[in-house]
């Protein structure tokens, strides 16, 4: 056990809250700073009407994992329902297909003869030059143009050939199992009442000092023995901004409807539509009261939602420079979360990064040196 030290956590999203929880339970004095008026980060759900109907202004967040540690920690700090995520894509007005694509559904479309011929002539291994070459090499040109090209141009504001394919393998697949679920992980669900309840549960111990509406940068970093940084490094270091892609969410209330969409998320890949997807949180939340909210998502907001993985890796190289700069200025700091690490990760990975950050910082306080946090560091814990 390390002698009690004072640790500052910057950012009260799920990664920061997990790190704060872990460090607090090891006996450290923890202060967590959050720039917003409430904890939860981009996981926060909001309500629109007097009946408490929930929607997610920063996109849908679905918990799914095969990691027992992540599941045990999450389920012990909030109540998970049994939601199994399904995504549809509206390839034409009123014509929906499961996403990721299912071959047996494609066989019933008018495009199947062309698709089938292209699938029979795919290369033995994916071509990983960029997102465009990768997508075409695993699904052919027809499916790429119908489902990937237009969506990508809208979502990222650039040509698919200008983007890296590093995130594509877990998003772009052709399936043959007729299972309509997006994920196959054994542990799945949505946090009853919204994901801020998970973060509030992690920070519930009164020994954790929570400072809200306190934006912290390198210029006003409080004195402490160690730090966990979950804020975006370009903002935290007051550096030239990295490239991010943000979404604009426009919620629409339907007060007398149960559900409007055919699934919780409906992608809009057509270049003839301006929205990238429609999201109906009632599918996830399981709320039973009358009414529903459908969020229309549009690209191009000046927000830090998604890191931009360009074809040549320039943005990721710039981020590595920022990490080195941070450790030169604050050698007793570790990173956690998607914003600080400039990665697109899921809730379970953010949880594991928070745990790994807490462990790494604890080792540093014992005399070791911190370093870049790996996305997952398995460990048995008692929740």
Overall description:
- By secondary structure, this protein is α/β, with parallel strands linked by helices.
- Among the domains are: 6-44 and 195-243 and 308-365, Rossmann fold; 87-175, protoporphyrinogen ix oxidase, domain 3.
- Helices cover 29% and strands 21% of the residues.
- It has 11 helices and 17 strands.
- The strands form 5 sheets. Strands 7-6-14-15-16-13 form a 6-stranded mixed β-sheet.
- β1 (6-10), α1 (14-25) and β2 (29-33) form a beta-alpha-beta unit.
- α1 packs parallel to α11, α2 packs across α11 and α4 (112-119) packs across α5 (131-156).
- The longest helix has 26 residues, at 131-156.
- The protein is globular.
- The chain starts with 5 loop residues before the first strand and ends in an 18-residue tail after the last helix.
């Amino acid at each position: 056990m390390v002698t009690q030290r004072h640790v500052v956590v910057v950012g009260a999203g799920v990664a920061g809250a997990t790190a704060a929880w872990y460090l607090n339970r090891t006996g450290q004095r923890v202060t967590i700073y959050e720039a917003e008026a409430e904890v939860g980060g981009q996981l926060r759900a909001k309500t629109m009407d007097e009946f408490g109907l929930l929607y997610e202004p920063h996109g849908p967040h679905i918990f799914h994992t095969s990691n027992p540690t992540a599941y045990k920690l999450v389920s012990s700090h909030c109540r998970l329902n049994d939601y199994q995520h399904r995504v549809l894509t509206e390839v034409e007005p009123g014509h929906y297909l499961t996403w990721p694509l299912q071959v047996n559904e494609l066989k019933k479309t008018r495009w199947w003869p062309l698709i089938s011929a292209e699938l029979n002539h795919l290369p033995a291994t994916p071509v990983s030059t960029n997102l465009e070459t990768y997508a075409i090499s695993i699904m052919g040109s027809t499916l790429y143009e119908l489902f990937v090209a237009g969506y990508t141009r809208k979502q990222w504001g650039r040509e698919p050939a200008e983007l890296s394919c590093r995130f594509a393998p877990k998003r772009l697949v052709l399936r043959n199992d007729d299972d309509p679920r997006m994920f196959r992980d054994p542990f799945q669900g949505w946090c009853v009442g919204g994901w801020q309840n998970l973060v509030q549960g992690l920070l519930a111990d009164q020994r954790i000092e929570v400072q809200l509406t306190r934006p912290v940068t390198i210029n006003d970093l409080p004195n402490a023995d160690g730090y966990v940084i979950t804020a975006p490094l370009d903002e935290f270091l007051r550096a030239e901004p990295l490239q991010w892609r943000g979404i604009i969410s426009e919620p629409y209330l339907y007060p007398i409807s149960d559900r409007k969409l055919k699934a919780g998320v409906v992608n809009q890949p057509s270049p003839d539509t301006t929205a990238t997807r429609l999201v109906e949180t009632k599918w996830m939340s399981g709320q039973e009261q009358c009414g529903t909210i459908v969020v229309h998502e549009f690209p191009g907001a000046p927000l830090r939602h998604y890191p931009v993985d360009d074809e040549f890796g320039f943005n990721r190289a710039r981020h590595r420079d920022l990490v080195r700069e941070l450790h030169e200025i604050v050698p007793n700091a570790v990173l956690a979360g998607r914003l600080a690490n400039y990665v697109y990760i899921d809730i379970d990975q953010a949880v594991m990064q928070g745990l790994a950050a807490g462990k790494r910082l604890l080792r540093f306080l014992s005399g070791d040196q911190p370093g870049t946090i790996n996305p997952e560091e398995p460990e048995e814990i008692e929740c």
